Amino acid sequence: MTASSDLLRELRIDRSAPPPPPSRRGLWIALAVVGALLLLGLAGWAVFGRADAVEVKTATVTALGNGGNASVLDATGYVVARRMATVSAKITGKVREVLIEEGQRVEQGQVMATLDPIDADAERELANAQAGAARSQVDSVRARLAEAEANAHRLSTLVNQQLVSKAQYDEAIAARDSLRAELTTSQRNAKVASDRLRITDIGVDNTIVRAPFAGVVTAKAAQPGEIVSPLSAGGGFTRTGIGTIVDMDSLEIEVEVGEAFIGRVQPKMPVEATLNAYPDWKIPAEVIAIIPAADRGKATVKVRVALKLKDPRIVPDMGVNVRFLEAARPATAPQPQGVRVVEAAIAERDGVEVAFVVADEDSAPRVEQRTLKLGRRLADGRQVLGGVAAGDSVVLDPPVELHDGARVRIGTAADSP
Q1: What does the radius of gyration of the chain's CA atoms come to, in whole angstroms?
Q2: What CA–CA distance (Å, rounded) separates 320 from 306?
Q3: What is the pTM of this model?
Q4: What is the reported pLDDT for 28?
Q5: Could you report the per-residue pLDDT of 248-258, keeping only the tens digit for each?
Q6: Residue 85 in contact with residue 213, Cβ under 8 Å?
Q7: Domains in the chain, ordered, with CATH?
Q8: Distance CA 339, CA 270 (A)
Q9: pLDDT tens digits for 30-42?
């Protein structure tokens, strides 16, 4: 009985013992679920919320009249020289000395090269000897003629006194006249010999190659020891030139304008030129002339443009962009109204010309649809008289689904017009 009673007492619940501590496992589970839901919500916003934003490119609206005259046409061309020459010798010969280098400036008449003068000098010496012989012949005939004239004069006196026969007198007169004719012939031969001597002097001078005008040497084509000729020998061993010089003061721009736009170009029209090598350098220029001939294959007309600025950085064959500008306005003339907007930013919605202006670019970019009041067409855009202001960023090539208030992502911005 005692053992059974002890067992029953052990099975009783002790009401006086403290309760076990409560478990926190459920709280941590709830917090984990809430955090996961928040992360899922953020991820969903990032994926689905941003997916609604359209990536666009923008351009900046610029004011008219603040940067000079408006452009009516843009074109490309090249710098060319009106005076450029490949200098060659007038005769065929071997180069003895070349006195030029690329980039060197030469003056008119300056010696550029010399040829071997052996042949020319020999011909001159021969011509000089012939001229001397001709002059000696003239002196000899003149002396004989003086004697014949004196003899004829004496005989004329004696024949009148009948001291000599008439036949002797006639013979003296014939000898005198013959010597007179011989003197004339010898004088003409002496003149021919003198002229030949002058020609050989020219031949000697032709062995010296001089600059025809002042300029800069752009190419050196011959070396000492080479054969040069004014005519091509066709074998590849004969040079046809000593070097090329360019008159840098004759540089101008040659532009080919599409024949559909040539009506916008007028002589004396102001031009702004920009060299491809120096894109930030604006060079003032002016239209010289419009060549009255069209290229049938390219449908273009050539335009000559004069550079108003001379600078060593401008060299032949450089690529250049030109902007044909409106004629200069007087200071009292009203400035053009409105702003310039690129054509790609103008769209049509419900039959109305609109543009989408980007607002709140720094935080959450959205677009505002603006109705435009358009003006005239410009070479690099469109004149807009209302709807946008200078400095606004407009969307280029807006997609059809773009609407007022839509979110956008700004891509690479285009250059301002």
Answers
A1: 50
A2: 13
A3: 0.55
A4: 59
A5: 999 999 999 99
A6: yes
A7: 54-67+335-410 (2.40.420.20), 71-82+247-325 (2.40.30.170), 85-116+207-246 (2.40.50.100), 119-200 (1.10.287.470)
A8: 22
A9: 666 666 666 665 5
